[in-house]
Specification:
Elements lengths: L1 E6 L8 H15 L3 E6 L10 E4 L2 E5 L10 H21 L3 E5 L2 H14 L3 E5 L3 H7 L8 H16 L2 E4 L2 H9 L7 E3 L17 H7 L6 E7 L6 H14 L4 E7 L3 H10 L6 E5 L6 H5 L4 E4 L5 H5 L4 H7 L3 E5 L2 H4 L9 E3 L4 H13 L4 H15 L2 H4 L1 H16 L16
Parallel strand pairs: 1-2, 1-5, 2-4, 5-6, 6-7, 7-8, 9-10, 9-12, 10-11, 12-13, 13-14
Antiparallel strand pairs: 3-4
Helix pairs in contact: 2-3, 3-5, 4-5, 8-14
Length: 417
């Protein structure tokens, strides 16, 4: 079976989006499928028209799209659809597997109808909510409502729908889509990439001033919804109970300047370290310095509905996890079993949870073992990839039974209700 993944962007760019794509495709290849990816015009990184990265073949959409908002996006959809059809003439995929945003889904629907092959649409987040979360959109605006409407059009037209978590699935069901049409494929990690964690590097610890005291850490992008300002505000309270505690923030993003200014003005300024962005290959060296990984996401529609990847990676690394009790975290972390949860948007609650965890080391090994076991059981891509196989086989079986091979797909075979 051949599967073409339709993507907004991909490796060699590094993001949670591209790492999930890599994990899915790598696991599918290992299972015996023939798999490629194609990116739209927003990939935005110069390179050859066909590019092999980490053993994966990616095709790039040629050309560009210009014009006023609205027209530009429709031209993007048209360019990507044309590129899918052109590639299909050569490679002949059996299934198009499009991933959010809706522009990728619309292009896949257009191409799938022309080619007569089924389309799977996977939602990783509602992009109108993601825009609100990263400060580029406003809830209820015209753009917000338009993006949501486009999502509904793709969900209604796709032959099957996949979401990464129960929050997103539940929201679609509340909109009127039948539960049986929506498959869950949760965030996961490639456990083959996680062996025994490296020992802390004394030279790096000394360079950062982290030789003594427990270290709370965060590795990722500095968006407002991540709640890092809450974590910085919690540090003076944490130091009242654990004077030697330190905070290590690795990464960067739109909030970096504000967070650095907040840290400089904090009574705990001397205990807070920023590294800036580090090469992906160096991340494990920083993980090794951290005792507890903190994820203080703020309560919002985005964080209530969407599960992040980082806590799973931390569990796979054998790290302790402390996270705010938003919906996305509650799907991943069982309080007292695989990590600890605390009230969101509350520095005092954050500080208390961290202090309780850091003061009582007797349960650390059990939490770590349960965290890694949880990832192995429910979030290992080598296992989870079978969920897609079942969806593909069902769609191809339905198509063949209805005599649709070689003809146009039933574009609305999976509409609402």
């Amino acid at each position: 079976m051949r599967v073409l993944h339709v993507l907004d962007h991909s490796l060699p760019l590094h993001s949670g989006y591209t790492f999930r794509s890599r994990a899915i495709i790598t696991a599918q290849q290992a299972s015996g499928l023939e798999v490629r990816g194609i990116t739209g015009l927003r990939h935005g990184k110069a390179g050859p028209p066909v590019e092999a990265v980490d053993g994966i073949t990616f095709h790039r959409t040629p050309g560009g799209a210009s014009g006023p908002a609205g027209w530009r996006e429709w031209r993007e959809v048209a360019r990507l659809a044309e590129a899918i059809v052109a590639l299909a003439d050569e490679w002949r995929p059996d299934v198009l597997h499009a991933h959010s945003p809706a522009l990728c889904g619309l292009a896949a629907l257009r191409a799938g109808r022309q080619l007569g092959i089924p389309v799977v649409y996977e939602i990783r987040a509602f992009w109108e909510d993601a825009a609100v979360g990263n400060g580029t959109g406003r809830e209820g605006s015209f753009k917000y409502r338009l993006t949501r409407a486009l999502e509904d059009e793709v969900v209604g037209g796709a032959d099957a729908v996949v979401t990464i978590c129960e929050g997103l699935r539940g929201d679609l069901i509340a909109r009127g889509y039948p539960p049986e049409r929506i498959t869950l494929s949760p965030n996961g990690v490639d456990l083959s990439l996680f062996g025994d964690p490296p020992a802390p590097d004394p030279a790096l610890a000394a360079q950062l001033g982290l030789e003594h005291g427990p270290v709370v850490g965060f590795i990722g992008s500095f968006y407002d919804y991540e709640g890092l300002d809450v974590l910085i505000a919690a540090m003076p309270l944490l130091q009242e109970r654990l004077p030697g505690s330190r905070l290590l923030l690795v990464g960067g993003g739109p909030m970096e300047a504000d967070l650095r200014a907040q840290a400089e003005a904090s009574p705990a300024a001397g205990a807070i370290r920023f590294t800036g962005r580090v090469p992906h290959g160096e991340v494990e060296r920083y993980y090794a310095l951290m005792d507890v990984m903190a994820y203080p996401r703020k309560a919002s529609r985005l964080t209530e509905l969407v599960t992040p990847l980082k806590p799973l990676e931390a569990m796979a690394e054998g790290k302790l996890v402390a996270a705010s009790a938003v919906g996305g975290h509650r799907e991943l972390v069982r309080h007292g079993e695989t990590g600890v949860l605390f009230a969101p948007d509350d520095p005092a609650a954050c500080a208390a949870a961290l202090a309780d965890l850091l003061e009582d080391r007797s349960g650390w090994n059990t939490l770590r073992e349960r965290g890694r076991a949880h990832v192995r059981a429910r979030h290992d891509w080598a296992v989870n990839v079978s969920r897609y196989q079942a969806v593909y086989q069902d769609l191809l079986g339905r198509r063949d039974r209805k005599g649709l091979r070689g003809g146009p797909t039933q574009a609305h075979a999976g509409t609402r209700g």
